[in-house]
Specification:
About 70% of the residues lie in helices and about 0% in strands. The chain has helices spanning about 20-35, 40-55, 55-70, 80-100, 105-125, 130-140, 145-160, 175-180. The longest helix has 20 residues, at about 145-160.
């Protein structure tokens, strides 16, 4: 599969901000303010930011999946590996369908399941040809494109979560994930 390094994400040129840019920055600062004090969101968002700075696609997807795991899985000490993967895909599909109606639930669950499998293959030294097959199955030409999609979806989720009261977020609310699934 090889290591793919994207172009750096900075510029030495002067940047001119439009009113839309300023509005987007205000929205971003509002999100950061609204997630402050929520340990789950803080931990998840921190890992997402680490992933954004990662230059190696394989490392970036690992960081992105860790960010997603922080949101989607509860730590109870009793869950086995298969249950964690299932919960990741199920909860992931539920929250994706809440913020992005471009995918059917089963498509969203498949995406999340395969993303988790790709991360596991990378972390545990899996076969790169199987990762390539999975990428094709999901409709992505490469890991960079998948990472871009995961980042976009994650941003949508963070915007949505930061806009609702802390106690109403699915990982804090009693039966929160189950109620989100029923929507």
């Amino acid at each position: 599969m090889g290591i793919t390094r994207p172009k750096p994400k900075f510029t030495a040129d002067k940047v001119i901000l439009s009113n839309d840019d300023i509005d987007d920055l205000k929205k971003a600062f509002s999100v950061v303010k609204n997630i402050s004090g929520d340990n789950v969101l803080e931990r998840s968002f921190s890992r997402f930011l680490i992933g954004l700075d990662e230059l190696v696609s394989e490392e970036q997807i690992v960081d992105f999946v860790i960010a997603w795991e922080s949101l989607l899985q509860t730590v109870d000490g009793k869950s086995n590996k298969a249950e964690l993967a299932y919960r990741f895909s199920l909860n992931g599909a539920a929250i994706l369908c809440e913020v992005d109606n471009n995918r059917k639930f089963t498509e969203a669950q498949t995406l999340m399941k395969e993303v988790y499998n790709i991360r596991s293959a990378i972390v545990h030294g899996g076969d790169s040809s199987s990762i390539s097959k999975t990428l094709k199955k999901l409709g992505f030409d490469n890991l960079v494109n998948l990472n871009n999609e995961l980042a976009k979806l994650y941003r949508n989720v963070i915007f949505w979560l930061s806009g609702i009261e802390r106690q109403e977020r699915p990982y804090h609310k009693s039966f929160g994930w189950e109620l989100l699934l029923r929507k």
